[in-house]
Design brief:
single chain, 79% helix, globular
């Protein structure tokens, strides 16, 4: 298989794996609390990556990156899924990350943001507004806010990574960041660390840790190596689309018309930000 085909195959698998996570997190909440699920992803997923790569890049900067990108973002992702009526809404909100990153870039990285990227930001913001107007109930708005916070934290982690870690050993850094986040997630124990052990909950927990966190990152590294960061990043915007499809398949929960419109605008806006710097 040639490099490009291998890259596209890896990217397709990554999108499907990461997209499938959202309805499964929603179902798992009956047995596994969001904080406990994050701890599983950090500990077992990190162990999977360590077994594959057999190396770490250890340092304070990597530790901070793990706190932001794993303990912070993944915890907010898991919580957002449980707070919105349709888990694919959380996927769309988490993938507002490029919008926040574009707004931070001129100040944090001293890089120019193109007009097309700003247009993407405007389009994405319009999409979020459309989704917000779907329902002004407090619980729904809280879920929206947590999802957006997840996108913001992810963007912060992206900017931090680009500024301090981008020139390092990426697999080694990611392995250490994932594992090192575990004690910080366990510090959330007072907020509720619940795991009701059943065959079903164990299967979902292992899938989230080994497949989503471990194998998902492994495939992502292959995709980035073969396709380049810009193309892989643009294709990753299909993850919320996959989440919509898997939510419909597993939970039989379609988005409403206004949610679909808002999601489409948001995903399109994030995609424009991803490719806008190279067009």
């Amino acid at each position: 298989m040639s490099g490009s085909y291998r890259g596209y195959a890896a990217m397709t698998a990554t999108v499907l794996i990461w997209g499938s996570a959202y309805p499964l997190i929603y179902v798992a909440e009956r047995f596994i609390s969001p904080a406990a699920l994050t701890a599983l992803r950090a500990a077992i997923g990190g162990a999977f990556l360590a077994a594959v790569y057999r190396r770490f890049q250890v340092g304070w900067r990597e530790l901070i990156g793990g706190v932001i990108n794993i303990a912070g973002m993944v915890s907010l992702l898991n919580l957002a899924v449980t707070m919105v009526p349709n888990p694919s809404i959380a996927a769309v909100l988490i993938y507002t990350q490029p919008l926040f990153t574009a707004l931070m870039t001129p100040f944090a990285l001293n890089r120019r943001v193109t007009g097309l990227q700003y247009a993407g930001v405007a389009l994405g913001v319009a999409g979020v507004v459309v989704m917000v107007l779907e329902g002004l109930k407090l619980s729904y708005l809280t879920g929206i806010a947590i999802g957006l916070a997840g996108g913001l934290v992810w963007a912060t982690g992206t900017v931090y990574y680009e500024k301090y870690l981008a020139r390092g050993d990426v697999p080694g850094e990611t392995t250490f960041m994932t594992l090192s986040a575990t004690p910080f997630v366990l510090a959330l124990w007072p907020l509720g660390m619940r795991f009701i052990v059943t065959p079903f909950s164990v299967a979902i927990g292992l899938y989230m840790a080994v497949v989503v966190q471990g194998l998902g990152w492994l495939l992502w590294f292959i995709a980035v190596t073969e396709l380049g960061g810009v193309r892989a990043g643009a294709l990753s915007m299909l993850t919320p689309v996959a989440a919509v499809a898997f939510t419909l398949l597993f939970l039989h929960r379609p988005l409403t018309a206004s949610q679909s419109l808002g999601a489409a605008l948001t995903i399109l806006g994030s995609g424009l930000v991803q490719v806008g710097g190279v067009i």
